[in-house]
Write a structure and sequence with these properties.
two-stranded antiparallel ribbon; 6% strand; mainly alpha; 103 residues; single chain
């Protein structure tokens, strides 16, 4: 009946198994058949670093999320995500810059 556009996976950088870390949002609505999920913290960080702008880096740092995640796990997930991307060297540079500033 209704379709939801999920084609953003081809536009933003996502880890191949991001769906395993989706977080369900509890919303008070009348649609009992609709579940709403958002990216988890690790995958939000990966998408922001994939863009690589200073504003994206600041957004991550100012959100406080770095205080609640395992940085070793983030590094592992980020390296895996980079390995599936076109422009790996560019993205690896973004990641290294981010780590140098915020880790």
């Amino acid at each position: 009946m209704f379709g939801i556009n999920d084609r953003c996976a081809g536009i933003i950088m996502l880890h191949p198994d991001y769906e395993n870390r989706l977080e369900k949002i509890n919303i008070d609505y009348n649609f009992k058949f609709l579940n709403v999920f958002v990216l988890g913290d690790y995958d939000l960080i990966i998408t922001k670093i994939g863009r690589g702008t200073p504003k994206d880096f600041e957004d991550i740092a100012q959100s406080g999320v770095l205080n609640s995640i395992d940085k070793i796990k983030l590094d592992k997930l980020m390296q895996e995500a980079i390995s599936f991307q076109v422009g790996q060297e560019r993205i690896q540079g973004y990641w290294q810059t981010f780590k140098d500033r915020y880790f």
